[in-house]
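User: I'm curious whether this sequence folds into something compact or stays loose and floppy. Could you predict its structure so I can see for myself?
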Amino acid sequence: MSDLATGSVAFGQRPALIIVDMTNGFTQHDSPLGGASAATIETNQRLLDAFRLAPLPVCFTSVVYDNDSEASVFRAHLPDLNLLQRGTHWVDVDPRLEPLSNEPVFDKTGPSGFFGTHLKAWLDEQQVDSIIVTGLTTSGCVRATVVDGLHHNYPVWVVEDACEDRNLEAHKANLHDMAAKYASVKSTQEVVEYLAPSAELSDADYV
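Assistant: Here's the prediction. I'll summarize afterward.
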């Protein structure tokens, strides 16, 4: 069975950047859930710089648990998630991507950044018309956030080199699937050029 034909979806003029679960529990290599490559950290830094320069809305998500009853089935599937207890440094955004005071971090208990959070209300407050999704992991929380973004009728871009997965084949397959059904797959450079073509942050700035 071949992929369905896809149409062109116009992207918005006021996108928000949603950085999914780039927290210590997923980025640090001493965590059983981690960690992210230097390249993925750097591409997210580039995107943060571009959004802050624009300026356009930025937010983050973090998986956080307060008690054993939260997301118990999800945690039974993935027991290493039990590391992500409120008050531990594991649930903090990686310091290399430190949020500014006006960049909220939405705590969640499941894969999607939208489920059980105030993310949609914040996007409405910010008058966002489209979303750009990055982070960890491509086949899990990134994909879930992308699909729920589509459910809320946002044009969605997912940034292929600003996402990562534990399994490279899963990363590629899920990007393919999202592109076939739910989102446009873009590179960091394409996003930077879209946001600020006259003040482009070149690859050379991040060597």
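Summary: Residues 15-206 form a domain with the Rossmann fold fold (CATH 3.40.50.850). Strands lie at 15-20, 58-63, 105-108, 130-136, 156-164, 184-186.
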